[in-house]
Amino acid sequence: MTENTIRIEDLELKFYTYEGVVQALDKVNLELKKGEILGLVGETGCGKSVTSLSILNLVPTPGRIEGGHIVFYGGEKPVDLLQQKESFLRGVRGKDIAMIFQEPRAYLNPVYTVKDQIGEVLMLHRKQEIAQMALAEVEAKIENKTKTKKTKPGFLLNYERKTLQKMLKNPNALSPKMISRVPLLNRYKRRMKNALREEVVRILRDMELPDPERVVDMYPHELSGGMAQRVVIALALSCNPMMLIADEPTTNLDVTIQFQILNLIRKLQQKYGSAILYITHDLGVVAELCDRVAVMYAGVVSEVAEVEELFKNPLHPYTQALLESIPRPGKEFKSIEGTVPSLITPPSGCRFHDRCSYAMDICVTTKPPYVEAKKEHFVSCHLYPGGSK
Amino acid sequence: MSRIEEFKKSMGPTLKELKFTLHRVKRSPLSILGMAIVIFFTFVAVLAPVIAPPVFLDPFSVWRDGFTTIPKPPGTPLATGLFGQMARAKGYTVHLWGSESGDYDIFYGCIWGTITAFRIGLLVTAVSLIIGLLIGAIAGYYGGVIDEIMMRFTDIIFAFPGLVLAIALVVTLPNSLPLELSQFIFPTVIFIAVTIITSSILKMSSGKSLLLGFICAVAFAALDALVLNRAPLWLYHIPLNNLDKSLIALTIVGWPGYARLIRGEVLRVRIEDYVEASKAVGCSDFRILFRHILPNSIYAILITASLDIGGVVLLAAALSFLGIGAPRGYADWGQMISFARNYVTLGMQYWYTFFIPGFFIFLFVLGWNLLGDAFRDILDPTLRRR
Questions:
Q1: B88 and B107 belong to one structural domain
Q2: Nearest-angstrom CA–CA distance, A351 and A343
Q3: Which domain holds residue B184?
């Protein structure tokens, strides 16, 4: 379990806006191990979502990645995603690294049914498997004909088999695409559609959706919030990705549905074995779900540790303040003093120093290094200089 | 009955939506009127050979029974000359709706003019829609320099008044397709045919079949240049009459409007969350643009297009009225009115010369406009579920 899925090294990202250069990420370091759930916690605008988008190289236009590496251990050897071509990344997106979003219904295309949308992902990344399923059906039919009725399969059926076999060999072959509009010759398409539908129903059943046969033909506006979120999760998990990025997937759901979705995510994580990067600002969810937590503040990762460790003895002053500010009954409500700094002119040195009660002179002048203060407990603060104490 | 119920239960979402759409249509009387008018004209166009059997070899040339300049009122018997006898042989005895100056039959011109109107309206709108769709969508999606170049180009066409540009184009376009261009037609057809046949029927690999298609096309071109140089020249001579030229001119005038509209819609849709989601599952740009963005932005353009079909017919009629549209004697409503030009000022004595074709134009445009309004009510997702 110590192998990595993805390692982010010294990621720097800037937004070139009209008001000035926003230094959204400043040397972010993160590791996601195989099969773990890593919670990424922080206030709004601290760079959580941008970190996840830069993994897929989908940072919106004024933003630009200025430096660092994102090493992905999916293939035979590790690759730096930031150095890859767009065509390579398209193969990774959705197949190896998938994403779940905050507002499920806004992330489903309103003009397509659930089947169309999940089917599209399957056809993009798992075309061969679908062709295999369709081929099996055709072969069964041919066998049925030759054995029971003692007749030879007709030309069309044979042709169908040939086309599917070709597709199996090369999913992007030209000829199936060309005849896809020719009537009679494009029967293979209908066969594939049936196979696709079966597969989508199977995936939806995995998501514990009630009555998946009915849901596959629904449009997004006919789904309830919880159903839509399950469909979006199905969309993400349909290709069995190595890594799943969940960007606040339960924020807009009510508490009971949130509980169900969290349970589902945990269950699916055990079944599919994907590593999950779970982005949220809800510390309760983190405590419930995650194995490790990373705390971000103003574009910097300030502390990374295992959940229990972090909640029991937080090292970074910001984490301590954050844990203090969780509202609990019978306790006076505390909040962190000051406001989140503007990232156009970030504070010098440690970005937290003007709100920190332990601030020292060095905090104003130099940026604290990212060190392993205890075993498996990383922190970026001048209170813990150099290694374990 | 039970089978119908069963069918209703098994209806897919597409059928259900269609049913809902028809339900919406049934509820608004104006859209029914518009649809009725358009369907009426469709029938007229399809049944034109039955309603008005052609007299001359070219069915689109309006038959005449003489060469007098003065129009004849409805019900005038045919003259006894050669043309009159030809018309009698096809079962005509009188000018049913009168005749234009030059003894052209109004009834025949109006009936066959329907086909011309459909051809102008649908062809011009469809082609300019496709051009505008491609250019506007690409400009809106990619933005930046591509957007600048394409939109400034549309601005240039916008800068001219539409009718004036159309007139200028009709006058300046050549009378036949340039030989340099038409020579490419056969090799292109051969290339496409060979590629499709080798790859889909002979199951060659895509690279091989493309190469083979290219070789065949080049071989044909070489053979053509060496051996067949003279013989099929008539094949390459593709004449453009004034009507074809006005179709081209109206298309050139028409597409920038669609390009503008679709660009705006694409700009609106491309920042939607589901477009980002489709990027995150690994869709290519082409796929995102044509499968995810266009279906969500095409409604406004479809509505405008259906409204424009009437407008295009009006513009073509204007060109014909000015004498640079359809060739003389061609069945076209605008030209029918143009024949009546000298008689419009003479009061109501010659009312049939301009009123009947004018009424046809009026009805046709009205029908498409009502249908366009109906389309808007039906297709626009924001108005749909009220």
A1: yes
A2: 9
A3: 179-236
- Helices (H) and strands (E) counted in chain B, each on its own, are 20, 2
In one letter, which amino acid is B320? S
Tell me the one-letter amino acid at B301. Answer: I
Are B284 and B171 members of one domain?
yes
Residue of B15, B196, B281, B296 for testing the chain A interface, max A β-carbons within 10 Å: B281
Delineate the domains of chain A, giving CATH numbers in brackets: 4-108+239-326 (3.40.50.300), 114-215 (no CATH)
Among the partner-chain residues A121, A162, A174, the one whose CB lies closest to the CB of B281 is: A121
Residue B204 and residue B142 in one domain: no
ipTM, two decimals, is 0.81
Query: In the predicted model, is pLDDT for residue B191 greater than 50?
Result: yes
- What mean pLDDT is predicted for residues B234-256? 85
pLDDT value for B384:
57
Q: Which residue has the tokens 């009679």?
A: A184
Instruction: Assess whether B120 and B158 both reside in one domain.
Output: yes
Residue A188 contacts B, CB cutoff 8 Å: no
Among chain B residues, CA nearest to A172: B206
Given this model, what pLDDT does residue A284 score?
Answer: 84
Q: Does residue B248 share a domain with residue B206?
A: no
- Cα B81 to Cα B98: distance, rounded to the nearest angstrom: 17
Same domain, B244 and B277: yes
pLDDT tens across A350-360, in order?
Answer: 888 878 878 78
B35: in domain: no
- Compare CB distances from B203 to A95, A125, A162 and report the shortest one's residue: A162
What's the mean per-residue pLDDT of chain B? 84
Edge to edge, the sheet with strand A4-16 lists A21-33, A4-16, A63-72, A79-80
Shortest distance between the Cα of A305 and any Cα of chain B, in A, equals 29
Residue A324 in tokens: 């203090």
Residue of A nearest to B284 (CA): A90
pLDDT digits (tens, 9 = 90+) for A124-138: 888 888 888 888 888
Residues B232 and B247 in one domain: no
> In whole angstroms, what is the distance from residue B137 CA to residue B139 CA?
5
